[in-house]
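[Meeting: bench + compute handoff]

Bench side (C.D.) handed over the final construct sequence. Compute side (W.E.) agreed to return the predicted structure before the next meeting so the bench team could plan truncations. Sequence as handed over:
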Amino acid sequence: GAIEDIENSNFNEAIYKIQNITSEYPNYYLGHYLTGVALVGTDRSDDAIISFNRAYSLNNYDFESLASLGQIYFNKSQKYFDEFEAKRSNEYFKKALLLNKNCYSYYFYMGLNNLQTNDITGAIDCFNKALALKDNDYNSIYYKSIALYLNGNYSETLKTNKILITKNVSNINSVLYLNALAHYKSGKNDLALADLAKISENINDEYNT
């Protein structure tokens, strides 16, 4: 069926099957949601927005469509460095949280959106909320550390980085570079140089290859 097609990335086939259903049952919200998912898979995000909005209009408890809209506008904000799209993304994630309050990833994306709009305090708050729901979300820990650095809280940056360094995360070079900056800003040049020296020892950092 269409769901299997989506799982196997056969998005056009899925769209064809689902549209046969929604043409006969236009108020079948799940059909519109699945159409949106398949359209995203074919990089037709503007058409997907229409489908997700249609699904939500038919079922006001459909947090998946709200989150999908949040994701689309997040991607647009990242692609075009657009603060307006980042704010719009957050509006949808906030609505999704009202229906699915324990989803840490919504807070993570909201934190990234807040970084985009230079709301550093808001970003830290969102990353903290994500970590309250999943304390080993290393992406939230990393971006929280960046936000703390941007906020001038270098001691907390170093404390947060220690978690990532201890776990030897995949982007360890990026963490070490951030650590070096925080040490430098704290007047600890010798420790900053030590951090930079460690970077050359790590060649498998997914952010630095």
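W.E. noted at the follow-up: The chain has a mean pLDDT of 95. C.D. will use this when planning the next construct.
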